[in-house]
Amino acid sequence: LGSGSRMLENREEELTTVRVQDPRVQNEGSWNSYVDYKIFLHTNSKAFTAKTSCVRRRYREFVWLRRQLQKNAGLVPVPELPGKSTFFVGSTDEFIEKRRQGLQQFLEKVVQNVVLLSDSRLHLFLQSQLSVPEIEACVQGQGTQTVTEAILHYAMSNCGWVQ
């Protein structure tokens, strides 16, 4: 056996599990109410700084993320998000559950794509609680921390587990 086949034996398969769960209505009953979702990530992939993380994001942050990924991915197709339905027929709970499933499918496809996985905005979105403007500043080197520091800071603070 050459050294090439031995290397394959040692390589454990990289697995990334991403779950969108626990939708919560924030500011319920007010005109600026919205739903956010818990994003749980567990991975052994070298692409990720933290091996487990848990953050809350709302739909419009997913919309921003998809736009950024599209901008940076060149010809690589970026998965679709579930629609922003204003004329939804059925219960709100049904709509929220359909959206949750759609957001999960979106993230599952994104983390399977090597090109999209190389975008540091995706990592900050999944592994820090930075706001969209803070993510932008961090990626452009205008934040107080590097991308890795921001993720590690969040991982160490354990905020992700309190929610």
Automatic annotation (TrEMBL):
Its main location: cytoplasm. It is a peripheral membrane protein. The keyword Cell division does not apply. This is Sorting nexin-11. Keywords: Cytoplasm, Endosome, Lipid-binding, Membrane, Protein transport, Transport. GO terms for molecular function: phosphatidylinositol phosphate binding. CDD domains: PX_SNX10 (cd06898). The keyword Magnesium does not apply. Residues 15-132 form the PX domain. InterPro entries: PX_dom (IPR001683), PX_dom_sf (IPR036871), SNX10/11 (IPR043544). It holds the Pfam family PX. The lineage of its organism: Eukaryota, Metazoa, Chordata, Craniata, Vertebrata. One of its GO terms (cellular component) is endosome.
